[in-house]
Amino acid sequence: MAVTAAQVAAILGRGDDSETVALAGAHLPLVTVFVKAYVRGNGFTADEPNADLSAVITTATARLVVNPEQVKRYQTADYAETPAVLDGFTLPELAVLHLYRRRTA
């Protein structure tokens, strides 16, 4: 089940924003490679991830799309924001990924 840029944009509530769709399309191949490498190809059939791994790809790509510069903190006067960054997989993502990765010898 291939993830599309439109699906990522829709998760972010920006399904009708062509810039967001384009940015998601640019980041999807990168995140897909991260996931495929982490699970060592398990869960992929003909380079297509299964539904579980598609969910991980979607959420990780969404984090990258909302903060493409990977800025850790914005601050202007007394306003500050700490956006999400893609500096690894989240615990729920890892729970799914570990189902497909052999972790013992």
Low-confidence stretches: none
Strand content: 5-15%
| Mean pLDDT across residues | 88
Question: Count the helices. How many?
Answer: 4
User: Which overall shape is indicated by the principal axes computed on the Cα atoms?
Assistant: globular
Given helix and strand content, the structural type is mainly alpha
The H/E string reads HHEEHEEH
Query: How would a crystallographer describe the biggest sheet?
Result: 2 strands, antiparallel
Strand order of the largest sheet: 1-2
Residue share in helix:
40-55%
**β-strand number:** 4
Protein name: Phage gp6-like head-tail connector protein
Organism: Oerskovia merdavium
Describe the secondary-structure layout:
Layout (H helix, E strand, L loop, with lengths): L4 H7 L6 H21 L5 E2 L2 E2 L1 H16 L7 E3 L2 E3 L9 H7 L8
Antiparallel strand pairs: 1-2, 3-4
Helix pairs in contact: 1-2, 1-3, 2-3
Protein name: Phage gp6-like head-tail connector protein
Organism: Oerskovia merdavium
Task: Walk me through this protein's architecture.
This is Phage gp6-like head-tail connector protein. By secondary structure, the protein is mostly helical. It is built from 4 helices and 4 strands. The protein has helices at 5-11, 18-38, 51-66, 91-97, and strands spanning 44-45, 48-49, 74-76, 79-81. Strand 1 (44-45) and strand 2 (48-49) form a beta hairpin. Helix 1 packs across helix 2, helix 1 crosses helix 3 (51-66) and helix 2 (18-38) crosses helix 3 (51-66). The longest helix has 21 residues, at 18-38. The radius of gyration is 15 Å and the shape is globular. The two termini are 30 Å apart. The model has no long low-confidence stretch (mean pLDDT 88).
